[in-house]
Specification:
It is built from 17 helices and 15 strands. With 460 residues, the chain is an alpha/beta fold. The strands form two sheets. Strands 2-1-3-4-6-8-9-10-11-12-13-14-15 form a 13-stranded parallel sheet. A two-stranded parallel sheet has the order 5-7. Helix 15 (381-390) links the parallel strand 13 (356-366) and strand 14 (400-410). The protein is globular. The two termini are 38 Å apart.
């Protein structure tokens, strides 16, 4: 854990650039608009050493987002080039300068970086101090990012002082966005006590951490939840933790147009069980008059009950993404399990307002060579119904259709070579073109076939 390179700033010139302040602001705003580009970010960093006037302007962008408890490699993989530090006391020392702490609007904390290390107690002791110094925060995240191998952290591991500091931060009127990713046992009161300023809520657990009873993963106690949460969200991401929002999804105001989700414009939900799926319909019912973008991911096991998809038509929906991850054993033939196409059809068929529809499927199937003339999608009623409904006049607004398939081939009697995988890719591509290509509509295909050995080289 190395201290931030900005913990001390080099002397700068007292001569200010001879440019109007408005022009300087425009230049630095332009640089800051693409901080994910490491070269542009470094340019902004170098500019901060030009003069005191320029340093003040650059600080506003450089310290706007701060990452605590991240390796630079992890942030680079996630295309984040913001200020990064792992040394907690050094970070506190920087923030004691009010001209710097006032610039921080977004704080992303990765508690897993310190968990099971000698630095955990130091991190927990200093977290209340850090949050108290950052009174201009607009966004707070307790997250391990998108790393699927990152440690999940239980809320109960935080000492009482740290818990209270986080809860107090969430209730601030300045907070617009909250993210809790990879945190188990979150108390429901933490979410429902947020201020009316909250517009973005991101809740997520990895699939493996969510296989237990959802009620055991989080502290869902209806007694701690107000009748009507104060917030009115615009964006909701809820991956594998939908039961945490059950009290306000299926509460007494579930059908009201002014419910807590009635202003949602973007929803991204991932569901694991039929119980979870049953919460999607009332959630969409509350947001049906505002929702423009919807992403739904299903983890499908073909030996379980099919998902409930009794969703209302969403008249303003413009972008719709459906993703299915099939976790069953390999399908015994070189065909997609019928549960996949049926579920896609049920989710899509009545969303006739969409202009941009994308569908992604991940599936494992046995490689059994097909006789000439046989099709991988043959006798698949769901795919047939989907193709027919998308080609009716009801879907005239559909301008872009994206289909992506990730296929894992399990070896049976014959060896699965790269040539075999490419042959399967070609077959799938041609069959999808035949079913879904239509004049006046853009069709984008991304087909990938791999053998299980290719995917997991050590499995042999």
């Amino acid at each position: 854990m190395n201290p931030s390179p900005l913990s001390s700033l080099a002397p700068v010139s007292s001569d200010d650039p001879k440019l109007p302040p408005e022009m300087l602001d425009a230049i630095f705003d332009h640089l800051a608009s693409n901080k994910k580009d490491i070269n542009i970010y470094r340019t902004l960093l170098r500019c901060s050493f030009v003069s005191r006037q320029v340093r003040r302007r650059c600080r506003m962008h450089l310290f706007q987002e701060v990452n605590l408890g991240w390796s630079k490699e992890a942030l680079t993989a996630q295309e984040s080039q913001s200020i990064t530090t792992g040394t907690v006391p050094g970070f506190v020392g920087i923030l004691e300068d009010p001209t710097l702490s006032a610039q921080v609007q977004c704080l992303r904390v990765n508690p897993g970086f310190y968990l099971n290390t000698d630095h955990w107690s130091v991190f927990c002791d200093n977290l209340p101090i850090i949050l108290d110094l950052l009174q201009s925060l607009r966004s707070f995240a307790l997250t391990h990012g998108s790393d699927p191998d990152a440690l999940s952290v239980s809320w109960n591991l935080f000492p009482i002082a740290a818990q209270k500091a986080i809860q107090s931060c969430c209730t601030r009127p300045s907070i617009r966005s909250l993210e809790f990713r990879g945190c188990v046992k979150l108390p429901a009161s933490l979410i429902y006590s947020c201020s009316s300023s909250l517009t973005t809520l991101y809740l997520s657990l990895s699939r493996d951490a969510s296989v237990a009873d959802p009620e055991q993963i989080h502290d869902v106690d209806d007694r701690s939840i107000p009748l009507r949460p104060p917030w009115s969200l615009r964006r909701l991401v809820c991956q594998n933790v939908l039961p945490l929002l059950r009290p306000v999804i299926s509460g007494p105001f579930g059908d009201e147009k002014d419910g807590p989700f009635s202003s949602l414009r973007h929803v991204n939900v991932a569901v694991l069980t039929n119980h979870d799926a049953g919460l999607v319909a009332p959630l969409l019912l509350q947001s049906m008059q505002s929702l423009h973008s919807l992403e739904v991911s299903f983890t499908l096991s073909t030996d379980q009950t099919t998902f409930v998809t009794n969703w209302v038509p969403l008249p303003l929906l413009q972008r719709f993404h459906v993703s299915i991850y099939c976790v069953s054993d390999a399908h015994p033939t070189l065909h997609f399990p019928p549960e996949i196409s049926n579920l896609i059809y049920q989710a899509v068929h009545n969303q006739t307002s969409v202009g941009n529809l994308s569908i992604h499927v991940t599936c494992q199937m046995a490689y059994v060579p097909l006789p000439d003339g046989d099709a991988i999608f043959e006798n698949a009623e769901g795919w047939m119904r989907l193709s027919e409904c998308l080609n009716t006049a009801s879907f005239l607004q559909l301008s872009t259709l994206r289909l992506s398939m990730s296929i894992v081939l399990a070896q049976q009697d014959e060896e699965i070579t790269r040539a075999v995988c490419e042959d399967v890719e070609g077959r799938v591509r041609n069959e999808l073109l035949d079913r879904f290509e239509r004049p006046g509509r853009s069709l984008e295909l991304a087909i990938s076939a791999q053998s299980f050995v290719e995917l997991v080289p050590d499995s042999e």
